[in-house]
Design a protein that fits this description.
mainly alpha; elongated
Length: about 140
């Protein structure tokens, strides 16, 4: 193990970075941010953990393969576009629920698309970094 300071910092910063990434994801459908920036912050949390510990430890806490995240993200993004198409509107038409949720706000297909982008960005970034770090 390397630096105890880095180890402890990564241990305490990772949950904070993950909460911040979800905040960016949810905030992003109305403001600047969204799936891409939130995904980068989440991937940075795992990368920090991998640097402080090792790649295998980061893979263990991720619990899924990065390729699975990419596939799930692409599926969620595709489904967000199909919802409008299946309701008789053009593909990728934005549709929202009538009643907003108290903390999150309006829920709709743009947020669903952002969740797909979020998962794809985490998966691709971690796939690249973990592969480079293991070699």
């Amino acid at each position: 193990m390397g630096s105890i300071i880095l180890y402890l910092a990564a241990r305490y910063l990772m949950p904070l970075l993950m909460v911040f990434s979800v905040f960016l994801l949810i905030r992003g459908h109305n403001e600047i941010g969204g799936g891409f920036v939130g995904g980068l912050v989440a991937a940075a949390a795992f990368i920090l953990y991998a640097i402080a510990n090792n790649v295998q430890a980061a893979r263990r806490i991720l619990r899924v393969q990065p390729r699975t995240l990419v596939a799930a993200g692409l599926l969620v993004a595709l489904l967000s576009g199909l919802i409008g198409w299946l309701s008789g509107k053009p593909f990728m038409t934005g549709l929202w629920l009538k009643d907003p949720l108290p903390v999150i706000g309006k829920i709709g297909t743009p947020l669903m698309f952002d969740v797909g982008v979020y998962l794809v960005v985490i998966g691709v970034t971690l796939l690249i970094i973990f592969t480079l770090a293991e070699d």
